[in-house]
# Entry
Amino acid sequence: MENVSSIKLDDKTLSSLTIEIPRNFSFCENTDDTIAVYENLIAICKTDPLQEIVIDFSNCDAIGLGAAFFLGQLMESIKIQNKYDHTKDRGKRISFQAKTSSKEIVNVIAGVSGVYKDIHSGGLYKFPELFPVIIGHESSYVATKIIKYFNRCLSKNNYSFNKSARQLMVRLVSEVVDNCSIHGGKDPKWATYAWYNNTRKAYEYGECHIVIVNTGDTIYQGLRQLGYENNLAADLRKLSGKHSGLFSKKGYTEESLWTLYSLQQGVSRLQGHDVRRGSGTYNYIESFLSLGNHTEYRSQMSINSGRASIYIDGTYNFHDIKDIDDSIIKVLTFNDSNSFDEPPDLHFVRALKRRFPGTMVSIRIGLSEEEVEKNDANRFEQL
# Structure
């Protein structure tokens, strides 16, 4: 992908610039190129006298809801900022245009994420059942809204989540939101979005997509703020130090390894060393792995925080180990040895070249008969 912000342009003639969306626009599978889109968009907005930005999806074949949602939110922020920028003449303010993809699913996800909002006259893409973006709010509120939304979508075919799936989904969403609010720094800002995809006929009961993004501190920043003398910080330095020889090689950094360690049961980013606190990340990953866990379909979760990327699809799962007090805790090491003495699989734990400004959790869960049940007309309103 060409970095348009690095191209030298003639200020006297420039009025329109194009940002080319990569072939795979996804936090799960193409994180660095995805983050580059946002960096380029922010950079070219500073170019004067730019009047038009074209978002070009013509070469994009695959897209994730998280990538599209963050792009849509960034575009909306630029529109709002531009609207109230009184230093610009009304006729010279930035507007957006788009070139669509030949892949219908790309256009659908871009559309539901707000990327095409106010761009196509006549409303080329209209979606009657959209989830309203939730900014902030308590975890119980967010979880309730998401469950009701998915159940409304499922109810069109006379289905709803069964009791087990509802409980797992509530725990999944609640724990992610709680982690954002508790560990996002002094002034965390998080947004939640969801979308039910029933366009892929291969999956009889559809897919549940969830995006939760926090633009506060990264996971690594939160851990570093514990202080040098903190017991947990000392443990993390000791663990990552075993692999310091790999830091010069592509893929491993202290940040990526500390982000991995933060996922484990019993790891707390709170002051002190109480291993029974701080299992929230473990809880939501375990809930995810219990949903949509089918041999014919791999659900996906990505956790992108700062310059660290964690990809989860069930290839690796939690295993029991003994803690220092001989109690049993669960760990997810992303290697065959199930030990932190060995480095993790680089396909699942990676250091990024580009930095995401906070933490993005993107989730895609394929539903089967194990998660749904037949229901009556009013059942979809229940939790």
Summary: Confidence is low (pLDDT under 50) at residues 1-12, 268-278.
